[in-house]
Amino acid sequence: MPELPELDPVVHGQLRLAVLSILSTVDTADFTYLRDRTGSTDGNIAAHLLKLEQAGYITVEKTFLNRKPLSIYRITETGRTALTNYIRNLKKLLGREFNKAK
Amino acid sequence: MDQELLERLELIERMVSQGRRTTQYWGWSFVLWGAGQLIALGWSLFLGHSEIAWPVTMITCGILTGIGSARMRKQEGAETIISRALGSIWGSCGTAIFFLGLIGTSTRFFSFRAFMVVLFALMGIANMSSGIILRWRTQQVLGAIWWAGAIMLMFVSDKTALWLFIAMTLVAELLFGIYLMIREKADLRHARTA
């Protein structure tokens, strides 16, 4: 019996998945942009961004704009691959669920 | 389990769509430059002093464009390859038009009419390139119209050339800019309720 594909637990987190999905469509995005687009709070998204950074899925560049700190995020190739694999496995699982329902 | 998975898939689609949605809207810049050129022309024709009318209005438009685009970049928070490509096309063409106009006409290296040919050709390049990048037929057609205007300018009288310049500025800049602003406002309304 074929094994069920596993979903990467780092990517599977709802907010982390949202962040990776957004970052996959842009070159870079700053902290405020990610927070606003995901409808999250500062503290919540900061924790999840750190987890993604620790997993090597995103990088962060800390700089200043008009003397205010600015964090710029970018998805890595590892992160992009992880997201692609996640989507593929998700579709496989959904296909399996659909077949079961039939 | 399947409901949770479906929700994940929908989340991905929603966030990808969010990432692609831009808050950078440029209709106002077409209106600004169109109005600026008409003001400069009116000032030169009716008040004289064309040697200051054009530099003053064009520099003012340049400064306002710079302020507007800096504000938009700050608000946007994300950079895409497309936005960088479009910015570089318009920035390069705009810079070339500005310097050729300022230096070329003030030194009388070429006549105002010859400069108009250059202006039309560069506007054609910028619009056509943008239209191809955005896959937007309307802007590609606009680019072709600018080029057709550049060719026509080489064959018509000075008076006709002036009217052609006014017509192109009114239609391809001012009216096109207003049309873009209306479209962009509708896009924004849709984005807010989505």
Can you characterise this structure?
The complex is a heterodimer of chains A (102) and B (194). Helix content of chain A is 59%, strand content 19%. Chain A is of the alpha+beta class. Chain A has a single domain, classed as Arc Repressor Mutant, subunit A. Chain A has a three-stranded antiparallel β-sheet. The longest helix of chain A is centred in the last third of the chain and has 25 residues. The mean pLDDT of chain A is 89. Chain B has 194 residues and is mostly helical. Chain B has a domain of 132 residues. Chain B has seven helices and one strand. The mean pLDDT of chain B is 87. At the A-B interface, α2, β1, α3 and α5 of A face α1 and β1 of B. β1 of chain A pairs antiparallel with β1 of chain B.
Brief write-up:
By secondary structure, chain A is α+β, with helices and mostly antiparallel strands.
Architecture blueprint of SSEs:
The complex is a heterodimer of chains A (102) and B (194).
Chain A: H1 9-12, H2 14-23, E1 28-30, H3 31-38, H4 42-54, E2 58-65, E3 68-75, H5 77-101
Antiparallel strand pairs in A: 1-3, 2-3
Chain B: H1 2-20, H2 27-47, H3 50-76, E1 78-79, H4 81-106, H5 112-134, H6 137-153, H7 158-193
**Coarse morphology of chain B:** elongated
What does the average pLDDT of chain A come to? 89
Strand content of chain A: 15-25%
| DSSP summary: helix tally of chain B | 7
Q: In total, how many beta strands of chain B?
A: 1
Percentage of residues in helical conformation of chain A: 55-70%
Query: What global shape of chain A is seen?
Result: elongated
Give the spatial strand order of the biggest sheet of chain A: 1-3-2
Structural class of chain A: alpha+beta
